[in-house]
Design brief:
Layout (H helix, E strand, L loop, with lengths): L1 H33 L2 H9 L5 H5 L4 H35 L5 H6 L22 H7 L1 H19 L2 H6 L1 H8 L2 H10 L7 E3 L1 H6 L2 H4 L18 E3 L4 H23 L3 E9 L3 E8 L9 E5 L9 E4 L9 E6 L3 H11 L9 E6 L11 E7 L4 H15 L9 E8 L6 H16 L6 E7 L4 H9 L15 E3 L4 H11 L4 E7 L2 H14 L8 E6 L3
Parallel strand pairs: 9-10, 9-13, 10-11, 11-12, 13-14
Antiparallel strand pairs: 1-2, 3-4, 4-7, 5-6, 5-8
Keywords: Cell membrane, Electron transport, FAD, Flavoprotein, Glycoprotein, Heme, Ion channel, Ion transport, Iron, Membrane, Metal-binding, NADP, Oxidoreductase, Transmembrane, Transmembrane helix, Transport, Voltage-gated channel
Organism: Canis lupus familiaris
InterPro entries: Cyt_b245_heavy_chain, FAD-bd_8, FAD-bd_FR_type, Fe3_Rdtase_TM_dom, Fe_red_NAD-bd_6, FNR_nucleotide-bd, RBOH/FRE, Riboflavin_synthase-like_b-brl
């Protein structure tokens, strides 16, 4: 009897425990995906720790995805184990050979005192489908499995990039998933022998004599079983409470009034919003969540702050890349109507907060990915203005890669101001920047070639000439390594994954094996 119970339910219980552990981690991963204030404060607390330890916080999205994959894996194995068990149940319920399995399967399902069944198949004609859709465990199992499939499939990169609203709304089915998971074990379909029955008929003593259970002189009686208590709610209770508290905090902050002080439309469909909010405090490279109720009540989108902490306002630059951003820009372009109301939650921390911890910094932005570096470069401008002697950074290499010339327009004024500031202070070598244009034709190239001898670039108006094509990263890293043979170099990227792989590879390749010599540390913005 003991072996029969173990063989049928050990795999299910073991996998359920692992599934519960992964769900526990998943809720924490979801919280890290949301990136609440705790992320920023944790980075501050770990500020005195090694750089490699702090950097692990920046892999929160990777952690989120890995735990989700583990949940999918254990869910699949859990379901397969149940299917095998129900197949065994069906065969045992239909058996007439008088075996231990068949006798245990015929234990009564009726009456309060006799509610000691072990096999959920109440009759030989009962099907697996019937048990699945008429039991709490089966029905909730189907619901949470469907919810998991929808969340996973809608989270694929193609869906996220092309149909963000589908991803956003579908991903919030996790609420149904966790509710279903919490009540999944209430039906008691996983059962064990009662304490009283164990004392009367212990499996080690009575399993072999199951045919004498009905005899009056037998010391073994029919075993009685009961549903094991639900355990899944324990795994989600604590992180669930944390999530609810975080949402309450974020709702409170999002309701605080935001005043839009300036609206600027830049070329290439880029909208700049300058805002003020009571009690708002930021650091370089941080981002906020923005909601516009007139566009969508529920959608919140992350945008990097482009203002500096030294400024008396905070700003974001929003490029039209989807339905939500296009509708938002269209709402601000309608001059006859009042300015749309904006709600803001944040700011939240990113890897760029550590930028001033490095002696040498390499900033790489692709398209609108330049926004976190706008905040950094503005802050540097203010630090030089105020003669901040605590600035550890000695040299900055800035690379901006764009497809079209119009994208450079809104950033030109800042770079021009930095050029003048560095010249006045005699620190021309402090900021080395390169602009790369990847989307160009023969007319643009010919025009730039004919005007190459001019003091300023014909495309941007800056002293630094625009390069056509993509950077040769091996050459760039080799030059930086030779120029700073004993420095710690922080490489920061806000751009696509393909570029991240190239830069990460170069960081490993050009870092010296000697820790006293040049070391490159790769950091990527994740949203």
């Amino acid at each position: 009897m003991g072996n029969w119970v173990v063989n049928h339910w050990f795999s299910v219980l073991f996998l359920a425990t692992w599934l519960g552990l992964n769900v526990f981690l998943f809720v924490h991963a979801f919280l890290s995906y949301e990136k609440a204030d705790k992320y920023y404060y944790t980075r501050e607390i770990l500020g005195f720790c090694r750089r490699t330890l702090r950097k692990q916080l920046d892999h929160n999205l990777t952690f989120h995805k890995l735990v989700a994959y583990m949940i999918c894996l254990h869910t699949a194995i859990h379901i397969i184990a149940h299917l095998f068990n129900f197949e065994r149940y069906s065969r045992s319920r239909q058996a007439t050979d008088g075996s231990l399995a068949s006798i245990l399967s015929t234990l009564s399902h009726q009456g309060k005192e006799e509610d000691s069944w072990l096999n959920p198949m109440q009759s030989p004609n009962m099907t697996v489908e019937y048990v699945t859709f008429t039991s709490i465990a089966g029905l909730t199992g189907v619901i949470i499995t469907i919810a998991l499939v929808l969340m996973v499939t809608s989270a694929m990169e193609f869906i996220r990039r092309s149909y963000f609203e589908v991803f956003w709304y579908t991903h919030h089915i996790f609420i149904i998933y966790f509710i279903g998971l919490g009540i999944h074990g209430i039906g008691g379909i996983v059962r064990g022998q009662t304490e009283e029955s164990l004392n009367e008929s212990h499996p080690h003593r009575c399993a072999e004599s199951f045919k004498q259970w009905d005899d009056h002189d037998s010391h073994c009686k029919h075993p009685r079983f009961e549903g094991l208590p639900a355990e899944s709610w324990k795994w989600i209770l604590a992180p669930g409470v944390l999530y609810i508290l975080e949402r309450i905090l974020r709702f409170y902050r999002s309701q605080q009034k935001v005043v839009i002080t300036k609206v600027v439309m830049h070329p290439s469909k880029v909208l700049e919003l300058q805002m003020i909010k009571r009690g708002f405090s930021m650091e370089v490279g941080q981002y906020i969540f923005v909601n516009c109720p007139s566009v969508s009540y529920l959608e919140w989108h992350p945008f990097t702050l482009t203002s500096a902490p030294e400024e008396d306002f905070f700003s974001v630059h929003i490029r039209a890349v989807g339905d939500w951003t296009e509708n938002l820009i269209r709402a601000f372009e309608q001059q006859c109507s009042p300015i749309p109301r904006i709600e803001v939650d944040g700011p939240f921390g990113t890897v760029s907060e550590d930028v001033f911890q490095y002696e040498v910094v390499v900033l790489v932005g692709a398209g609108i990915g330049v926004t976190p570096f706008a905040s950094i470069l503005k802050s540097i401008w203010y630090k030089f203005r105020h003669e901040d002697h605590n600035l550890k950074t000695q040299t900055i290499y800035f690379y901006w890669i764009c497809r079209e010339t119009g994208a450079f327009a809104w950033f030109n004024d800042l770079l021009a101001s930095l050029e003048c500031e560095m010249e006045e202070l005699g620190k021309v070598d402090f900021l080395n920047y390169r602009l790369f244009l990847t989307g160009w034709d023969s007319n643009i190239a010919s025009h730039a070639t004919l005007n190459f001898d001019k003091a300023t670039d014909i495309l941007t108006g800056l002293k630094q000439k625009t390069s056509f094509g993509r950077p040769m990263w091996d050459n760039e890293f080799s030059t930086i390594a030779n120029a700073h043979p004993r420095s710690v170099v922080g490489v920061f990227l806000c751009g696509p994954q393909t570029l991240a792989k190239s830069l990460s590879k170069c960081c490993c390749q050009y870092s010296s094996l000697d820790p006293r010599k040049v070391q490159f540390y790769f950091n990527k913005e994740n949203f």
